Amino acid sequence: MKRLQDKVAIITGAGSGFGSGMARRFAAEGAKVVLADINIKRVEDEMADIGAAAIAVQADVSRKDDMEKLARTAYEAHGRIDIMVNNAGFTHRNQPLYQVDETSFDLITAVNMKALYYSSQIVVPIMEHQRGGVIINTASATALRPRKGLAWYCASKSWVVAATRAMALELADKNIRVNCICPAESDSDALGVFLAEDTAEARAELKASIPLGRFSRQEDVAEAALWLASDDASMVTGTALSIDGGYTI
User: Fold this and answer.
1) Which is one Pfam family of this protein (predicted)?
2) How many domains does the chain have?
């Protein structure tokens, strides 16, 4: 029996990066995945590899109506929602905190924080009716050990950790487990946003700050999320799981 056989999982930010890795891994373990991204083309490209187990939904997680549409699509297709992965995220460019413009700040709070509020309002009653479920929030290693130049992003991800713990406490008696994952940066095109100056030397210095000597990979995060979503982690809730190569030690 596959670990997520016939489970229904919603994954936001599924068109690239860690979300893409989780989508593929969950589907491989038998889950029916509903993949959301603000860029529908990216999700549709992912579906070509995942196959019939996937449904693509264009959704802006900062909009309540889009989150309602996402949950409704999943429920109407499969009759339940077992796993909610709040993975979509946004960051400002590495710069002094007083130089971050208000538009970027508002997007950080809307995507990294308020989206969890929306998804909880919509998905928790469904899970409560089902007598159980799993919520996984993507935080960041910088939530536990901030990096210079990313003040508001780090603060938003620390909020995710605190919200995860509070949610876990409140929802435990409903058999809803809530955890978050805290990965280090990945070696992707987006990595440059985390650097004050995107140079080979700056990337090497960032990598050197991780004791295991490499960035987080899609499969690292996907395997951790799979474990948290599965019954193998049935006694795990309220955890901020570091997938950071020792960065937060």
Assistant:
1) adh_short_C2
2) 1
